[in-house]
Design goal:
This protein is of the alpha+beta class. It has 2 domains: about 140 residues, no CATH class; about 120 residues, no CATH class. The protein contains 9 helices and 8 strands. The strands form 2 sheets. It has a 4-stranded antiparallel sheet, with helices on one face. The chain has a 4-stranded antiparallel sheet with strand order 5-4-7-8, with no helix packed on it. The longest helix is centred in the middle third of the chain and has 23 residues. It is elongated, with a radius of gyration of 29 Å.
Length: about 270
């Protein structure tokens, strides 16, 4: 067995998805190649990360049926192992890993028996996919985590920080603007509700006002309901005033506000 085969078996072992024969092969390979143990740790860590991140969701029956249908379409290899009496099955956990015959393993490379590992690997990975789906569409949820807007991620990091703070200001037209910040993370986010939409040739621009000096911190737009979650570019400093101005599309051309702020939020 080569290292790639072992890595696949390690994944199946971590998911409790190996057959009896594969479990024995896994134990034998691990005993003969202790330096492959990193694959075991990686597989266990990956399964733990998925199970802790994803809420359980019942997958549609059609997914399991489709996967099993594909498996049955694969060419099958007749088993060469004799049938065993259930009473004769070894307790591998008690007996410990069986010794590995290096010469026999080397001779098996390139033979039909070796090609059976490819089919076995496919079944192992198929079982792993089913297990992940049962855990709650892990791949989909992880993908959603990775593709969340940067402002949403920043807001979550701020609100979970031990020094998270926020302040709210109300504009004359009734729009509500809330600034969230954390000095320990150096991040700040502005959340708006009911803020007026602007024409295409204008945009809202964010500013840190630090010691009476405005520092450009990015532009943002609101949706049809005047809502927006915008992360301020650059590092937040304690005592900064967060301000919003209306600027030409693309932001202030000279890096300084071209009009008075439409709203300011003090953080001190």
């Amino acid at each position: 067995m080569n290292e790639r085969d072992f890595a696949d078996l390690a994944a199946g072992h971590a998911l409790n998805a190996l057959s009896e024969a594969d479990e024995r092969a896994y134990q034998e390979a691990l005993a003969g190649n202790p330096h492959w143990s990193s694959h075991v740790r990686d597989a266990i860590d990956a399964v733990a990360a998925i199970s802790e991140t994803v809420a359980p969701v019942e997958p549609p029956a059609s997914i399991r049926a489709s996967l099993l249908a594909r498996i049955t379409d694969l060419p099958q290899t007749a088993s060469t192992e004799p049938e065993r009496d259930p009473g004769d099955v070894e307790d591998y956990a008690a007996a410990g890993p069986a010794p590995v015959d290096r010469e026999i393993e080397a001779d098996a490379e390139g033979t039909p028996a070796a090609s059976a590992w490819g089919l076995r690997r496919w079944f192992t990975l198929a079982a792993s996919i089913v297990a992940v789906l049962v855990l709650g569409f892990g791949a989909v949820a992880i993908s959603q985590q990775l593709t969340r807007p940067a402002a949403v991620v920043a807001l979550e990091q701020i609100t979970t920080a031990p020094d998270a703070q926020s302040a709210t200001a109300t504009m004359p037209d009734g729009a509500v603007v809330t600034a969230h910040w954390s000095a320990s993370t150096g991040q700040s986010v502005l959340v708006t509700e009911g803020m007026p939409s602007l024409p295409d040739d204008q945009t809202y621009e964010l500013w840190f006002v630090r010691d009476d000096t405005p520092i450009a911190a990015g532009i943002f737009e609101t949706d049809a309901e005047g809502q927006a979650t915008a992360v301020l570019e650059g590092e937040f400093h304690s005592g900064d005033v967060i301000a919003v101005t209306v600027e030409p599309a693309g932001g202030s051309p000279d890096g300084t506000p071209s009009s008075a702020p439409v709203v300011t939020v003090a953080t001190a």
